Structure formats: C-alpha cells, structure tokens
C-alpha cells in the first residue's frame, strides 16, 4: 500500500517567479540564460502571428550543429590539446548521453572548463578523488555542443556524428489564451491570470493537449485559466537538440525587438528545458531526476519591455538562483 501511495503522489517542484524590465541595469535575464548550460529544448509562442520574421527564422535555423562521440574515454577531456582547442574558447559544453543521473556515472563539461563528475560509490572509490556525497543516491556516449566544426576532425579517431537540432514550426488557430497584465505577476481577480497559471497553460499548448475539458476526453481534463481570450492564431516554434546558452541569448534578444514595430500580440514567450539527466541545473547546482528531472525556465516578454521570468526545478534540487 505504501508503494501504491507513492506512485499516486504528484511530483513536487520548486517554482520561482519574478518580474523585471529588460532596460533595468540590474536585470538578471542574460546571466540566468548564460548559466543554464545543458539545454534540450527551446519553445517560442507568439500570439496573433502567422509567420516568423526573417531575422527570427534565421536564428532558429542556425542553432546547430552538435555532436555525438561514442566510447570517449574521460581523460580525453583533460588533455592540453582539448583544453587549448575548445575549453579556452569558452564555447564548449559536453554531457554524457543515455545515462540515468540517479543510477549511472554521469559527466558534464561546463563552458568555464569545470568538469562535473556524478559517480556511483564503487567508481568514486576507484578514482581516489576528493568529492562530496550526492543528495541523489562505464563509458557512455558523450554529447557535445561547440562553435567550431573542428570537433569532427579533433575526434576523428572515435565514432563521431554531427547532428542538427530538430525544428518544428506550426500555427494554431482559435486558441483559448489567458489574459495577462505585466504588472500583475500574481494575477488579479477577474482581470488577469497569474504566472504559475500561464506556465501550466504553456505546457498544455506545447504538448498539444485539448484545453476545453470536454466530458468525453479521457486524456486531459485541463482547461484554460480565467479570464481568457481567444486568439485568431498563434505561432509555435520548437527546437530540440543540444542548444548552447549563447544561441538562446540571441533568440531572447531578437524577441525583445519583436515589439519595435506595433503588433497585435501583447506578449510573447520563450521556454527552455534542460536535459533531465544533467548533473547540474544552473551554474554548479546539483540536479537529480527522482520523479521528473525537470529544470526549466520561461520568459514572458511584454510589449513595454517588462518581462516575467519563471524558473522550475524538482523539489530536491537547490532553489533556482
């Protein structure tokens, strides 16, 4: 019975919501994007839009490539040649692929050159390294993201494959959408929805869930929060792969300029999901999977340059910065 109760428990998470303006000197938006290193998916939603601008579409199409290197020994990441060729340039990230963070040995290379090892007890004792116990208690494929095409030639002695991110573009019509006010992060009774309500709605939209709570729908009982409005159309863009923080910074900057000319949309969103089995979330904050493995953030960019920032991790992770 205890096991059954645990299975029925809804995974808990930590959610931090804050409001600022891109023009403020102390705005943290760029720093928080740059220190969330291992990004798996980027999703953009633009209300009342039927096609991406040329500038934004070019950025979306230029987010790759990234590379798979099979059976790469860990010592290759600490050679002088590798450090001089990639690490010192500050644009190289790496992550073991197809590992379970709570069970397997996992390695992550951060852009600042730090190598994070999440090891099981036996491997840790064999290495003789000094470390600390994880709160989440073999050689694998390594996934890399780097600016230079020299990655292919550098690892030519190994099985290396170049991959491009998968890009999905679509338009949704007659979309029921929450009403937001940039000044009302917590919402306002009968006037505006809150930031957490919006985040739930975005998850449903990008999952292509029905939002009408029909009695004969046995897959989803979710409905759009109130108050709401109906969008004639909305443009959805999803990029899936291994996406560098600097690429996301460029996308965010371009979305900030979306309202340089008058638009029907009052706001747009940029959502970023990290790899569920990355050993870190932001900076060097330890991350585990447990029941969900989530570590993600979302920007709501308003037409007056105000923005909401929502950051979420699992309940056992450190609080988002």
Automatic annotation (TrEMBL):
GO terms for molecular function: ribonuclease MRP activity; ribonuclease P activity. The gene is RPP40. GO terms for biological process: endonucleolytic cleavage in ITS1 to separate SSU-rRNA from 5.8S rRNA and LSU-rRNA from tricistronic rRNA transcript (SSU-rRNA, 5.8S rRNA, LSU-rRNA); tRNA 5'-leader removal. It comes from the Eukaryota. This is Ribonuclease P protein subunit p40 isoform X3. It comes from Neomonachus schauinslandi. GO terms for cellular component: multimeric ribonuclease P complex; ribonuclease MRP complex.
